[in-house]
């Protein structure tokens, strides 16, 4: 039944040719629970922006009456310190994921969350405690943002790898939506300090889910195979719902084992520094390192996190001046993101593919941001007048921007960066990707409020800047991003060793790889390609 539903919504060669048993409910549950760290990230992004607009929070932390530039600086510090922690956490996660495994790394992240959230909720007007709490929570988010996609991609069958890895992005936007409505409810129904303390405390809820779920879940078969191939075979068979002697299980396990053997041979007498060197000196690895770093950079330079962190301020700039209307519009913004992301991972991720998604969404996002910029430049909202007709169109443009991001530069970059590295490089290159993500997330979070205060009336220049980035990244995707839809993780080595990764090389090469997979689908033996 579950497999039949998947076949109706996902169209690719892998799901048609693979044994139906591998597309089972257990795999989906394991991957969804693993994304609890993403839910935490989403809740933090959504909650802090709303909390900063609450009068009770401003009074408690002495932010009321500050000059615009000073307030922008303090607010951006509160927001961005979590990105600084996340940057450190994702660098640390590269070592942690290989040392104690993917599963226990996520358990460790949840413990950091409990400490960080407790400090934030109990800071009671002390900015230092708030900064420390958010920094510690950031370390946890940095670990989870690296290990979540890694764990999911190593557990998911190839035919729904895009769907399940995309659950990471869906969890982020689900957390955002919950946070927006928690803020709105707190503003309407709570008085005093509890109005902002409750939203801050509820950030720990996803960590509880992650902690319990990962204690009960299996470790990644690819990680286990490094220590015990026999145990990895048992875990893989259980995860796929097939006996250990089934041809599909034997083929997948042989592929994992042969890849690990090659990597051990390459790693003989090599240090951690050698691994880093290989990531940038071996041509096929260098291409993948380059893509992991730059795709995450562009994902942030769309301006989406600026919209998320400071959405009440964004909606104020198009005419929604009251806190209640701003937070309500922010709640709708979250729903738009969540529904769009769900549609993408169910119907588009493993059907349309990665490359096409990046191309068309970047164009639409750029157009939407340029419209908002032109509106604010030539017809800015008047005080206490409410939005004009053009203002409502700008509001719709912001919602279109949010929706389209979920079809491309949101989930696709996480899917792509988790699936293209070689197994030996996967933790390192995912660490590079998330380090880049958090570095540029920090840049956006720290700089956006200052840009709104200095780049023209109502910050119209900010929209032109982010819109220009959107058009630039379309050009980047056209020339440098090959398609990976439907390929097994083990085939990425061959794809990226083929020479140029320019788009024009990809279709024929990918088609040939898929043809080879179809030719081998009935064979229990694994044919490795050097």
TrEMBL record:
Segments passing through the bilayer: 28-57, 77-97, 104-123, 129-151, 163-184, 196-217, 290-310, 330-349, 358-378, 390-417, 438-457, 463-481
| GO CC, one annotated term | membrane
The membrane topology of this protein is:
Multi-pass membrane protein
Q: Which domain of life is it from?
A: Eukaryota
- Where does the record place the Major facilitator superfamily (MFS) profile domain? 30-485
Q: Determine if Transmembrane helix is one of this entry's keywords.
A: yes
Q: Where in the cell is it found?
A: Membrane
- InterPro entries recorded: MFS_dom, MFS_sugar_transport-like, MFS_Sugar_Transporters, MFS_trans_sf, Sugar/inositol_transpt, Sugar_transporter_CS
User: Carries keyword Transport?
Assistant: yes
Keywords on record: Glycoprotein, Membrane, Transmembrane, Transmembrane helix, Transport
**Major place of residence:** membrane
Listed GO molecular functions?
carbohydrate:proton symporter activity
Q: Which family does it belong to?
A: Belongs to the major facilitator superfamily. Sugar transporter (TC 2.A.1.1) family.
Entry protein name: Major facilitator superfamily (MFS) profile domain-containing protein
Its taxonomic path starts at: Eukaryota, Fungi, Dikarya, Ascomycota, Pezizomycotina
């Amino acid at each position: 039944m579950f497999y039949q539903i998947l076949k109706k919504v996902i169209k690719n060669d892998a799901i048609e040719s693979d044994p139906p048993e591998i597309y089972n409910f257990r795999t989906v549950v394991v991957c969804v629970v693993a994304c609890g760290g993403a839910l935490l990230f989403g809740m933090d992004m959504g909650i802090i922006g709303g909390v900063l607009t609450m009068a009770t929070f401003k009074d408690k932390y002495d932010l009321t009456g500050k000059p615009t530039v000073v307030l922008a600086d303090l607010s951006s510090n509160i927001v961005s310190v979590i990105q600084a922690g996340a940057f450190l956490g994702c660098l640390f996660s590269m070592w942690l994921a290989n040392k104690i495994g993917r599963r226990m790394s996520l358990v460790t992240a949840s413990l950091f969350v409990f400490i960080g959230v407790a400090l934030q909720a109990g800071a009671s007007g002390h900015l230092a405690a708030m900064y420390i709490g958010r920094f510690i929570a950031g370390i946890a988010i940095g670990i989870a943002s690296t290990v979540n996609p890694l764990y999911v991609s190593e557990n998911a069958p190839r035919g729904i790898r895009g769907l399940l890895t995309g659950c990471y992005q869906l969890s982020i936007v689900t957390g955002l939506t919950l946070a927006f409505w928690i803020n709105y409810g707190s503003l309407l129904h709570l008085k005093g300090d509890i109005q902002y303390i409750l939203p801050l405390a509820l950030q720990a809820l996803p960590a509880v889910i992650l902690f319990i779920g990962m204690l009960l879940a299996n470790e990644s078969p690819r990680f286990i195979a490094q220590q015990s191939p026999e145990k990895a075979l048992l875990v893989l068979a259980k995860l796929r719902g097939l006996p250990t002697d089934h041809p599909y299980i034997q083929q997948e396990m042989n592929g994992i084992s042969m890849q690990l053997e090659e990597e051990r041979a390459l790693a003989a007498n090599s240090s951690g520094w050698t691994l880093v060197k290989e990531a940038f000196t071996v041509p096929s690895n260098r291409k993948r390192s380059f893509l992991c770093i730059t795709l995450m950079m562009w994902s942030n330079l769309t301006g989406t996190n600026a919209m998320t962190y400071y959405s009440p301020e964004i909606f104020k700039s198009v005419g929604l001046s009251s806190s209640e209307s701003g937070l309500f519009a922010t709640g709708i913004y979250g729903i738009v993101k969540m529904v769009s992301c769900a549609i993408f991972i169910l119907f588009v991720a493993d059907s349309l593919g990665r490359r096409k998604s990046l191309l068309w969404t970047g164009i639409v996002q750029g157009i939407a941001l340029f419209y908002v910029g032109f509106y604010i430049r030539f017809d800015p909202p008047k005080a206490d007048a409410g939005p004009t007709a053009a203002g409502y169109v700008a509001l719709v443009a912001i919602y279109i921007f949010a929706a389209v991001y979920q079809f491309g530069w949101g989930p696709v970059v996480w899917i792509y960066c988790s699936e293209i590295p070689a197994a030996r490089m996967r933790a390192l290159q995912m660490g590079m990707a998330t380090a880049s993500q958090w570095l540029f997330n920090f840049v956006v979070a720290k700089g956006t409020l200052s840009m709104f205060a200095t780049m023209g009336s109502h910050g119209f220049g900010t929209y032109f800047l982010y819109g220009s980035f959107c058009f630039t990244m379309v050009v980047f995707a056209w020339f440098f991003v090959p398609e990976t839809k439907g390929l097994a993780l083990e085939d990425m080595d061959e794809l990226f060793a083929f020479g140029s990764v320019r788009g024009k090389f990809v279709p024929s090469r990918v088609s040939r790889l898929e043809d080879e997979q179809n030719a081998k689908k009935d064979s229990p033996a694994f044919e490795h390609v050097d």
